[in-house]
């Protein structure tokens, strides 16, 4: 019985190794970190992404979302193994929030980074102060001069501005991927299945060994009882 168990374990290990090698070569899944934005001004920003795919060439790009419509792909390029890529955006609107993410594909598998966003800088309100002075009236020379106080009128003109977007700061608002105990790639699922199969086989082997020891103890007990009866 132990021979059958060992053969089953060997077959499972060989199958798992072959399946993992096939998935690693034919179905490689790149890994993306959350995209970020830097150098944010009133009308421009630089978005940055990072990809990792050991000893594989990944095709990467950015997707931009405008007003909830279909995403626009920009900066399509290939990166071998691992690297950082970026794209400089210009002609943006002041005080507007822009949403984006990175995408990578390799071996028929396409992965997406968590969605990120940034808000361009809003211009600060300006204050204009106007000073109006009234003319000074003097008496004729034959009359003693009389000092007349100068009346000053101050008027303030404030230019109102409106801001759009979720925030008015200059940083990018990054939305994280969250925590999960389940894998998010095909290779991760394959490794999980292999680990489950190995655990099941190990549990079965332990159970068979325990049953065998139990049968051995019962057999010895029966032999001792039979020996006592014969005496």
N-to-C CA distance: 36 Å
Counting DSSP E segments of at least 2 residues, the number of strands comes to 10
Structural class per helix/strand content?
alpha+beta
DSSP strand (E) fraction? 25-35%
Topology pattern, helix = H, strand = E: HEEEEEEEEEEH
Q: Percent of residues in helical segments?
A: 25-40%
Mean pLDDT: 76
Rg over CA atoms, rounded to whole Å, is 38 Å
User: What overall form do the CA principal axes indicate?
Assistant: elongated
**Count of helical segments?**
2
Low-confidence stretches: 152-180
**Biggest sheet features:** 8 strands, antiparallel
Please describe the topology of this protein:
Elements lengths: L1 H25 L4 E2 L3 E3 L6 E21 L6 E18 L7 E10 L2 E4 L3 E4 L7 E7 L18 E7 L13 E3 L11 H45 L1
Antiparallel strand pairs: 1-3, 2-3, 3-4, 3-5, 5-6, 5-7, 7-10, 8-9
Keywords:
single chain; 231 residues; alpha+beta; 8-stranded antiparallel β-sheet; two-stranded antiparallel sheet
Summarize the structure.
The chain is an alpha+beta fold and 231 residues long.
Model description:
Residues 152-180 have low confidence and may be disordered. The chain starts with a helix and ends with a helix. Strand 3 (45-65) and strand 4 form a beta hairpin. With 231 residues, the protein is of the alpha+beta class. The strands form 2 sheets. Strands 1, 2, 3, 4, 5, 6, 7 and 10 form an 8-stranded antiparallel β-sheet that branches. Strands 8-9 form a two-stranded antiparallel ribbon. It has helices spanning 2-26, 186-230, and strands at residues 31-32, 36-38, 45-65, 72-89, 97-106, 109-112, 116-119, 127-133, 152-158, 172-174.
């Amino acid at each position: 019985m132990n021979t059958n168990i060992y053969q089953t374990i060997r077959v499972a290990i060989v199958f798992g190794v072959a399946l993992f090698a096939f998935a690693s070569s034919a179905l490689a899944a790149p890994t993306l970190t959350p995209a970020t934005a830097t150098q944010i001004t009133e009308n421009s920003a630089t978005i940055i992404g990072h990809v990792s795919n050991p000893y594989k060439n990944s095709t990467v790009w950015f997707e931009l979302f405008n007003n909830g419509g279909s995403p626009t792909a920009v900066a399509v390029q290939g990166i071998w193994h691992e690297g950082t890529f970026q794209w400089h955006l210009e002609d943006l609107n002041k005080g507007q929030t822009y949403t984006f993410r990175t995408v990578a594909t390799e071996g028929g598998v396409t992965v997406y980074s968590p969605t990120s966003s940034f808000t361009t800088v809003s211009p600060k309100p300006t204050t204009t102060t106007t000073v109006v002075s009234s003319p000074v009236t003097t008496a004729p020379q034959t009359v003693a001069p009389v000092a007349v106080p100068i009346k000053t009128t101050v008027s303030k003109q404030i230019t109102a501005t409106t801001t759009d977007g979720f925030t008015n700061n200059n940083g990018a608002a990054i939305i994280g991927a969250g925590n999960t105990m389940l894998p998010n790639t095909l290779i991760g699922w394959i490794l999980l299945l292999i680990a489950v199969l190995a655990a099941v086989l190990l549990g079965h082997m332990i159970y068979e060994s325990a049953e065998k020891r139990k049968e051995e103890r019962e057999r010895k007990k029966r032999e001792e009882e039979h020996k006592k009866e014969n005496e």
